[in-house]
Design goal:
The chain is α+β, with helices and mostly antiparallel strands. The chain has a single domain, classed as 2,3-Dihydroxybiphenyl 1,2-Dioxygenase, domain 1, CATH 3.10.180. Helices cover 16% and strands 36% of the residues. The chain contains 5 helices and 16 strands. The strands form 2 sheets. It has an 8-stranded mixed beta sheet with strand order 2-3-4-1-13-16-15-14. The protein has an 8-stranded mixed beta sheet with strand order 6-7-8-5-9-12-11-10, covered by helices on one side. A hairpin with a 3-residue loop joins strand 14 and strand 15. The model has no long low-confidence stretch (mean pLDDT 97). Pfam families: Glyoxalase (PF00903). This is Ring-cleaving dioxygenase.
């Protein structure tokens, strides 16, 4: 059975104070907070989702804020860099904007593309690349307008304990195609128009440790539940230990850890983020899974308050 993912569904990371997280991704980067909910395994921790106005798969960056937690170390066995894509000719806007918020950046070239590289307030490694592909993000917030707004993921840079094995999984399990090799990177691409370019660092360094400022997992797209079931069988047929299907309310998920140490998830595009609140009000209220609704008063006292606010 040949399977091909369209690309990245979402990327989930661990950060620190939740208000700092909201201020950076909404206030500085101009993304929409599309869902306030909680970690299914630890409801005393937020799970915050940011994306484009429509909360489309391929645009969703999610976070577990752990206030006062220990700092992780970015290294092998992780997504090392998360790449966002912006419209063509928008990089000059973003360099000026980052400077205005005292966010230091560097510039790099990879596979003939220009990248603006920087870190968020909690140490996550991010970069921006300008490309023609992908729909414009129609969300306007905090001085970021659709002509320059982040469209979603450009892709990611994977730091692997075993790059050759990771490359094999990308091609033979996830269905990405090999694009080329340059310097220390091999590039692969999926069929989607965003979240579709994966670079694998071919040298190995120290193993990463989980904590604030690191990516927890990368999730790939399945179109619906039927496709998801096929993906689970497909992954098992390639000898990977894969979890049972887990209901994450906004998508169903399965997980496996590839040989390079990176935690992979496969998530359904359906049902999406507007089924428990309206499209217009997404992200404005704390939405709890049904099993935690009876604990709402307690959780609202425990979770630190957050406010989405424009920054200047």
């Amino acid at each position: 059975m040949t399977k091909q993912t369209a690309g990245i569904h979402h990327i989930t990371a661990i950060v620190g104070q939740p208000q700092e997280n909201v201020d950076f991704y909404a206030g500085v980067l101009g993304l929409r907070l599309v869902k306030q909910t909680v970690n299914f395994d630890d409801p005393t921790t937020y799970h915050l989702y940011f994306g484009d106005e429509a909360a489309r798969p391929g645009t969703i960056m999610t976070f577990f804020p752990w206030p006062n937690a220990y700092r992780g170390e970015i290294g092998d066995g992780q997504v090392g860099v998360t790449t966002f894509v912006v419209p063509a000719n928008a990089l000059s806007f973003w360099k000026d904007r980052l400077t205005s918020f005292d966010v230091q950046y560097t510039e790099a070239t990879r596979f003939g593309e220009q990248y603006v590289q920087f870190c968020d307030r909690h140490g996550l490694q991010l970069e921006l690349v300008a490309r023609e592909g992908g729909e414009l993000n129609t969300w306007s917030f905090s001085g970021v307008t659709p002509d320059v707004a982040i469209k979603g993921f450009g892709g990611a840079v994977l730091y692997s304990l075993d790059p050759e094995e990771t490359n094999d999984v990308l091609v033979n399990v996830m269905g990405l195609r090999y694009v080329g090799e340059e310097d220390d990177y091999m590039r692969f691409a999926s069929t989607g128009d965003i979240g579709n370019v994966i670079d694998v660092r071919m040298t190995t360094e120290a193993r990463g440790t989980m904590g604030v400022g690191t990516v927890h997992h990368i999730a790939w797209r399945a179109s619906d539940d039927a496709d998801h079931a096929e993906w689970r069988t497909h992954v098992q047929q390639h000898g990977k230990a894969v979890t049972p299907v887990k209901d994450r309310n906004y998508f169903n998920a399965i997980y496996f850890r590839e040989a390079g140490g990176i935690l992979f998830e496969i998530a359904t595009d359906t049902p999406g983020f507007a089924h428990d609140e309206s499209f217009e009000t997404m992200g404005t209220s704390l939405m709890l899974p049904a099993q935690y609704e009876e604990k709402r008063a307690e959780l609202e006292q425990t979770l630190l308050p957050i406010t989405v606010r424009p920054l200047r």
